[in-house]
Amino acid sequence: MAVNAVTVRAAAEAVLRDLVDYFVVDVSFLRFHDLERRTTSLVAEWPRRPMVPDLDPLGEIFFASADPVIAAGEHLAEVMIIRPDPESQNNQRRIQEGSGIEATSAATVPLRSGDVTTGILGFLIYGDRGWEPAEINALKTITALLAQLQARLLAEEQLRHLAHHDALTDLPNRRALLEHLDSRIAPGRPGPVAMLFLNVDRLKAMNDFLGHQAGDQFIASVATRLREHVRPDDFVARLGGDKFIVVLTGTSDAAQAVSVALRAQQAITEPIPLGGQTLSRSVSIGVALAEPGRDVISQWLRNADQAASAAKTHGGNQIVAFTEEMKTQNDVRTDIELHLRAAIRDGSLHVHYQPTVDLRTRQLLGAEALVRWQHPTLGLLHPDSFIGVAEATNLAGELGRWVLHEACRQLALWQSDTPDLAFHLAVNVSPVQLIATDFVATVAEALSEHNIRGADLTLEITEHAVVGDLPVVLTTLRGLRELDVQLAIDDFGTGYSSLAQLKALPVNTLKIDQGFVRELGTNPDDLAIVGSIIGLAASFGLNLIAEGVETEIAAQTLLRLGCHQAQGYLFSPPIPAAQMRELLTNSPTNGIPPRTTTTDPQPSPQHTTTGEQPESVPLPQREGNGLSLAKRGTRARSRD
Description:
Blueprint: H1 8-23, E1 27-34, E2 39-46, E3 60-62, H2 68-72, E4 80-82, H3 89-99, E5 104-113, E6 116-126, H4 133-164, H5 174-184, E7 193-200, H6 203-210, H7 212-229, E8 235-240, E9 243-247, H8 254-269, E10 272-274, E11 277-279, E12 283-290, H9 297-313, E13 319-321, H10 324-346, E14 349-358, E15 364-375, E16 379-381, H11 383-392, H12 396-417, E17 424-428, H13 431-434, H14 439-450, E18 457-462, H15 463-468, H16 470-482, E19 486-492, H17 499-504, E20 509-512, H18 524-540, E21 543-546, H19 552-561, E22 565-566, E23 575-576, H20 577-586
Parallel strand pairs: 12-13, 15-17, 17-18, 18-19, 19-20, 20-21
Antiparallel strand pairs: 1-2, 1-6, 2-3, 4-5, 5-6, 7-9, 7-12, 8-9, 10-11, 14-15, 14-22, 14-23, 15-16
Helix pairs in contact: 6-7, 7-8, 10-11, 12-14, 14-16
């Protein structure tokens, strides 16, 4: 069997035993040197000492404090014979302390690697003994073989170290971390055990500004600070990139873990000298606990990662402890992510339509297409539940194409039923679609395939999408306007678009965000904001649509301020295509007949991914050509 770091002692003892017998000596020993630490360590001895002190004076010896005989072994190049005399008294005393033997003679043979002494093979004789030249030559041959073995063991140890440590920071890597976690939460170990998941905030900005070499230096400095400011026995590892893990020693509750996390966070955020500059980054930290024998490593890591992601979502430089509520949300998100692609293709998605009305006559002017997903276990999901997942998994483009084609197909059917129908259909567009090079062609294809005029289609974009990559977005928007497609800025007032950008954008309509409309007529701040938006739209010659109109006082206030179009639950929730067809065909003036029930089901109370809370709201009835509303059981955001 090949000798390795685990079996080297037993193998060396067997060799030493044979050497003791062959050379008729009393003791033989093998020592390996640590060149960086300038120490020599006992590998094996034969025979074994019957009593070895806890602090073995013959175990590890620092050359700097060793007696002259031991110190000579650091750079020994030739065989050294030691016989009892006054010059070796210190060495004799050390041997006596470790073994109880008084007078000895010795032979010390160096292990050499090139011009470097890497260890020694030694022999002790009780009393005096000389060595023949043939014996010394044999010892040199033996030590040459032992030096080769030592070099191989050292190379294997270096490979093991590289396999279990990060090359940049020399911290334990993912493999070493998983082995440690497996041991730490094995059944029978004390718990709970705390893990800190650290994620340096906005490291990419530093890499882009100073280059990746500077970023690597920064990460190395972070690793050093992390080691210095957690407890000595805490396990610190680097997962890669800008992520680190700290596993606290012993048992810890969430409060104790947060205390350690706070100390680490404060240390890391202190400025770091780098390339003639002093730079700093904040760090987001997630805290998760595990119970040995109950929890599994993969879920523990996911919990800590999710808590760190929540800390980043809250703006970074935060410490967030994982909760069961986070786990529920993560399970729902994972379920959605796993099934969304199939849902786009298997008919699980549906489009509902929320009417847009003229506030003066309550006549139907158009509708906004809003996607719904009839999930097999979660029930009817609104866009807030899965749009973010679609964008994160590169499905936003495919989802957007499906909604666009389905909405255009439905509009074509309505126009076929009513040839003179004056009706605008609005479809939401994701930021991903706006910067896609083929998006204009995709819209043109949908219009052509379903024989729809561009003027009958409105594409709604958000302010956030506009400011993200303005030159590319402008090119796309101009291409859409060449198709005569109408453009609207959705949720206006919640983003960061400037007046200069608004002037440059080829848009036709502003949609006032529902957050400013819901309490309109009772909230003076909302009144001021909406009034400003209406004045701005008038200045730029833009149409206006108010979202989220839920009360008659809000509708009347909008009319008084000069906004004539709106959508919201005061008029109608999003409804299926069949019901929208009834509205279009049953009223010759395109008015909406009285409505007595809500047809757009709301999420169940236990499912809160859309952020909606059931609430009983009595709504007024209107007669004639307008909308007639009775009491409805639930209330939801009109954008859903």
